[in-house]
Amino acid sequence: MEQLVTIELFGQPYTFKTESDVADAKEVTDYLVKEVTKIETQHSSKLPSVTKLATLILAALNIANKNIELKNKHSVLLRDISKRSANLVNKLDAAARG
């Protein structure tokens, strides 16, 4: 069921529809706001002329980078689990044979 979620960025509310749980959508929007705020804080003293679009792009790049890092870690974890599982199966097979 579609529901409306509102996010505030740069002092303006933005409302969008979501088919996911509102709590999940709220977590996503809170994460985006946190990233945007972090970028604004980091660049406010260095580059006061950073545009809203540039801030959003930097936040999106940070989020995409974190996503890729997590995907890579997940892949490594799955490979490790697969290797360990195969090793355990081999040991169990050897123990069952005697």
From TrEMBL:
InterPro entries: Cell_div_ZapA-like, Cell_div_ZapA-like_sf. This is Cell division protein ZapA. It comes from Candidatus Desulfatibia vada. One of its GO terms (biological process) is cell division. Keywords: Cell cycle, Cell division. It comes from the Bacteria. The lineage of its organism: Bacteria, Pseudomonadati, Thermodesulfobacteriota, Desulfobacteria, Desulfobacterales.
